Structures are given as structure tokens and as C-alpha cells.
Amino acid sequence: MEMTKEEFKKELQQRLKEKYAMDINDASSQELYNVLGSVVKAYYSDAWSNTWKDYLEDGQKQAYYFSIEFLPGKMLKSNLLNMGILETVEAGLADLGVSLDELAQVEQDMALGNGGLGRLASCFMDSIASCGLPGNGNGIRYDYGLFKQRFVDGYQVELPDEWLRNGNTWEVRKESKAVDVLFGGNVYLAEDTDGQLRPVYEGARRLRAVPYDTAVLGYQNHLVNTLRLWSVEIPESEEDHYRSIEDRRAFEDLTAVLYPDDSNERGRQTRLWQEYFFVSAGVQSIIRYYLRLNKPLDVLNEYVAIHINDTHPALCIPEMMRILMDEHGMSWEKAFNVTVKVMSYTNHTIMAEALEKWPVALMKENLPRMYQIIEELDRRFVNELTICYPENPELIQRTRIIQNEQVHMAHLAIICSHSTNGVAKLHSDLLKEVVLHDFYQLFPERFNNKTNGIAQRRWLQLANPKLSKVLDQTIGTTWRKTPGDLKLLQNYVEDQTVLDQLAEAKKSNKQRLASYIEETTGITVSPEAIFDVQIKRLHAYKRQLLNLLHILKLYFDLKDDPKKVQESRLFIFGAKAAPSYTYAKSIIKAINEVANLINNDPDINGRIKVVFLENYNVHLAELIIPAADVSEQISLASKEASGTSNMKLMLNGAITLATLDGANVEIRDAVGDDNVVIFGMTEREVYQYYERQDYVAKDYYDQSPVLQRILNAFVDGTIPNIYFEGREIFDSLLKHNDEYFVLRDFDAYVKAQEKIDGLYRDQHHWQQMSLMNIANAGRFSADDTMMRYAEEIWHIEPVEQYSKK
Ligand code: 26Q
Fold first, then answer.
1. 644 lines ligand 1 (CB under 6 A)
2. Which of 277, 473, 663, 793 is the most buried if burial means most Cβ atoms within 10 Å?
3. Residues 123-134: tens digit of each pLDDT
4. Which GO terms of the molecular function aspect are on file (predicted)?
5. What does DSSP assign to residue 454?
6. Do 354 and 407 have their domain in common?
7. Which of 114, 576, 639, 645 to mutate to test the pocket of ligand 1 (most atoms within 8 A of CB)?
């Protein structure tokens, strides 16, 4: 894809005339953005249709990544970068007096996900395309993305995210590829004219699923894959079937909103509909496409791999069985055999309360055919185990799909797929040894680890052009295609010039963030301070509270001894809480009130500042991460499956302050003990407490005057305006025995923070540590992660003409 600056300028101006009859100077940013979008789209359209044709002609095996969330963020710059025309376009626009950065601001973040899981899916889409792999995404086109967060008096308030209000440049509606999806009614099996048993549907609702396709561009390799998101419509023929407007509305709203990651939303009927809707539409469209290849369905697994991202799309399994049997007359045994070979599953959590289960009654009423098939899958599984393990009925009870009138989606996914993977080494080990141990005994060969990865292009090249430039000048540009080459930077660990350049880049990113903070919060911060960052969803297990307790300790220390030697610190938080997660919301309120207290205390005089940035999202992450000095990864060991912000922060030169949880363990292995600060209980110690049941949080309080002063501050008015929230937090620690061992790890955390303070004082050494982190972040490239999925799970290969290098 070639285009000169002059050609681009001409094209842009011409399209602006055609569309709005305007000159550059008269156009608004929105209008310019729209036109630029259409130029970009036209530019990749040939490559998109060529890729499509190549796949069809070659009949190559393709992977389909099913995820109920995708969190791509803004796409303009990423597309320009991948097409290799970012600089040309930036310069062309500058000639015309337009700033690309300003235009990019116009684009709404595509926020069709909650956090880690959705963002991972998007990093994977980018890497699949960039590695030249034939793979596509399948999900839901929500009318409203994740809520927008505002603070009112320090409280989180949720506003709707109307991301489609000004249209979406990148999507293409494909009416002709729509499929129908059935809900509810009765299903029974009756003999057909050919003597076969077939399901007969009575009184089912028929909904139309219309796909909207978005191009996923590979990095400078001419490959364009597809992210297909489904939107619900009511077919005209069905309009008479609605009893009332409310009845109709319930179906129309099926793809209206993304459910927040929230235990109170579990068991909701609409969520179940959403899951079946995008799964059924996706599987139907895969089979429709496959039939064009004129291959028999019993070798489907040689051409198609379907990946189930967490259990939310696990209905892929019974839906595939339904299509193969009901629509194509395949026997149960054959259909099951092929389904297992097609499907693979990733687990993202070990927290028992987060594992998805659906009440049998709900499933039966809404998805009767799915339930029949699940019941039969369960029956056959129980039968087989009874033969193999007659002496162990407990094992069967523990592992079967249907238990206590609930369908266990993880059991369904493991039993009916050929691969189950965790997302970091520690997490995968815990799955095998503890959480899914029974299944590991039954199917040891199915379990494997695939440590998460991140898209270097977005999280370094786009988010941090300053650092990227230093890297180019120092180690050349090959790291842009081969992130492992970042290792070359290690050769410069004693090179003062390079260390100074890295420090300069960091400084400038800190200034950029400082300006943003000033503009949006009115708080003035010094770029000289340590930028200490905790950015992730607000969850008790992630322990933002531990961070807050330590901030209070520093505050009281400085109040007691204003001459205390201590580096200036800026604590930065970014986090959304699920709307009905009251405890998490109380912590947000408490952080905001502590921020107010400290930021305005003349005794502190700016030596500690606390900033909670509103509405943390992909775009804000791109601004914060390049400016971070310290990366807070302080979850209770064993609870964070992987984490991915830990990788992004490391790649941008932050020093990780962490427990040995999730991928933090691998970060430590990558950089060595000297370049990371580890503290707190190990996962083993946590499990020992669970076994012995002898943790008494109150002992820590009783024995520590420091903790007494800090915790009392929550209930004695020291922290103002948190009468109820303060009590709730205080009680969670002392009355309800501190579920996530915050008090147990407090001392170790304080010491680790003191270590950070000391390390930062030696700027030369700090720069060396920072360099070592950047140099060793290449191993967390999502490109590598995707190549492992491709080789070891999906059995797909890069397409020759698009493959890397
Ligand atoms: C479930 C039921 C009803 C409504 C919502 C949900 C729901 C939504 C989102 C449940 C879970 C999620 C998201 C989970 C998630 O983001 N997990 C994270 O996945 C990352 C990628 O693997 C890991 O790095 C994180 O450790 C893990 O917490």
C-alpha cells in the first residue's frame, strides 16, 4: 500500500468536496475525521477483499475468536500505523493546517468490554493479523459500551456511553449475511418423513442477527482480517408475534448494553440471550461459509477452529452439535467427535464465585433445544465416568455439567473441547492443581498454559512515540516487527547517553500527563515526583485499599515529622467499579476524600499528591502508561489470573511493585530480582491460611499503633465525608476478617515502598532498572502468544503471502 503525501492531500480534499461540498478551512473536526476515515477505508478495501478471496481459494484452516467483549479503543492511528502511512498522513494534514492528534480525539473509544478480558481479545486480533494468521473475531455490537464514569462529590456516577451517536466510520453492515436465531417456545423430537428424529419448534421467537464487520489490519503485511459483531433486529415477518410493546422492547434491547463485570448481574435472562445470540449467529455463519468450500462436515476441524474466550461463549458447543445433527443429519457420536476437535477454551479466573452457572429452569425456558443437548451431554458424560470410575461417585458429582439445578459452563467447556488454557504460568498451575484438579485428572493432555501478551504496536509505538524514537536510534527499528529484539537495549545499560535519552522521554511523557491532570482536575502536579500508578478495575482482590492505607501512612509520617526525607510522590488511580458493587464504590469515595485531604493540606505542601482520574479507558491508559515510574500490581497472590497492565507498564519503563501473582511471577523471571520489587505472601502461604483457617485480622490491628491510627482515620472523622463508607471499609477489615489479607501484607508493602523510595533517589541506578524492564518486555508480545495458540491449540499457519519478514 503506497501513497505519497501529495496524493493523500488531494484525495482528502476531493472527498471533502464530494461529501460536504467544503474546503478544509470550513470543515469541523468531526467532518474532517469522517472524511479521513473514508480515505483510510478506501485505502485498505482492496486488501480486505483480497484477503477474503485468498482464504476462500486456499481453503486454509481459520480460527474464530468468540468473545462477548472486545475493547479496541480508538482505531484511526492504529490503522494508519499498520498501513504504513501514519507519518505521511500526519505530515499531509500538517501542510493543510490540521493536527492529526486533534482529529484522532474526535473518534469515540470503542469500549465494548469491561477490562482485561476484552482488551486481551483486541490485542489478540491485532496480533493474529500482524502475524499473517487467518483468524477472525466474533462478538456483539452493543449500542452502548461500558458506562462513562463521572465523580460527583467523590462518588462514582455512571452515564451511558453513546459511542454510535456520530456514526462509526469503521464498520460495514452486511445485510446479506444476516442469520436468524430462535428463542423460547417448546421443542420436541418427532420422526421426519425420512424416519429420522428431528426437533419440532412450537411458539419460538425468531430474531434476526445482522453482522457489522470491522477490518483488522495486519502490521504492514497487506493482510486484513475481520471482526464481526452482531446486532439484533426484529424480522418483518415476526412483527405480529409480540404481545405488547414491552414484550417487543425486551427483544429489541438484546444487544443494547454491555453487562458490567458484576456479580449482581449474574443469572440475568438478557445476558443469557446475549450469549446465545452471538454464538448462534457466529456458528451459523461459519458453517454457511464452510459449505461453500464443498467439504464434508465431518472434517470441519481441518478447516475451522473456534476459541471460547472465558465461558461466556460456551454455548458454541451445544449450538455446533445442534447444527450438525438437526440441520445436517449427523449422528450424535460423529457430531460430538468433530465438535470437541473444533473447540478450545480459555479460563480467566480462579475465583469460584466468578465461575459462570445458569439455572436449569432459565435455560430450559429460554433455550429449550440447547438445554436438551446439554442434558444429553451431561448424561453421556456421567455414563462414561460411571464405567471408568465405578468406585468414585463423588468425582462424577463434582465434575458433571448439571449440578444442583445449575448448568456449569466451565464444565461444559472443558468436557466438550480439546484444550483448556490458563493465562499465566501460575494461574495454569493453580487450575491443574487446585481449581480444576478433577478435570486435570480426567483429561491431563487438554490442559496447557498460554501466558497473555500485549500489542506492542499500540502500547509502545502509538502510545509512546518519544521512547520509540530513542529505541530506533539506539537499537534500530527491527523491534517494531520483532519485539524480542528489544533485548538489544541491554547492551546499553552502562551507556549514560542512552540512559539520559530514556529519562528525557519519560520526563516529557510525565509533563504530557501532568498537563492533562491540570486541565481535567485542576490539580497541579510536579513532573519531578515519582509517578506511582495503579490502573485496573476496582475489585477488593486487587487491593487498591492496600495502596490507600500506605498513602495514609506516608501522610501521617509527614504530619509528625515535616522534615522526613522522602521523595515527592504522585499517586495516580484509574478504576471503574461495577455499578452495584457498593464496597468497590466506597473505596473510590474514600480514595477521593483522602486525595482532597492530602492535596489541600498546607503541611504536606505537595510532597504527596493523590489523583483519581475519571473514566479510565483505553485512551486514558495510552496517556498514563508512558508516564509511569512505578507499576502497582498488588493483588492477593493467587487471585489475579494474569494481569496485562503489568506488561504494558513494564514495556514503558515502569518498575513493577508486585506480589507474586499472575504474570508478575514471569515479569520477575524476565527482569531478575534486582529490577523489580516483590513483597507479600506467596500463593502457597495464602492457601496455608485457607487450610488452617487461622487468620485473625484484628491481631494485626491490635499489635500495630500505625495500623490503628490509619484504620481509625476511616471512622473518627480524620478522613472527612465518609461516614458510611469509612465504617464499611473499617468493618470489612476488622469485623469481617479482611478477606484479601490487606493487613497481613501491610508491613511488607510499606517496606517495599521504602525500597522504591531509596531506589528512586539513585537516579542513575533507577534509569538502569527502567532500561532493563524495557529490554525484557519483548517476551510479553501478543504476537508470540498468538503464534503459540496457532501452533499448539488451533493448528493454523501464517498465510504465505502475508507472513512476517
Ligand atoms: C459475568 C456475568 C455477568 C456479567 C458480567 C460478567 C463478566 C464480565 C467480565 C465476568 C468477567 C469479566 C471479565 C473478566 C476479566 O477481565 N478477567 C481478566 O482477564 C485478563 C485477561 O486474561 C486477566 O489478565 C485478568 O487477570 C483477569 O482478571
1. yes
2. 663
3. 999 999 999 999
4. glycogen phosphorylase activity; pyridoxal phosphate binding
5. B
6. yes
7. 114
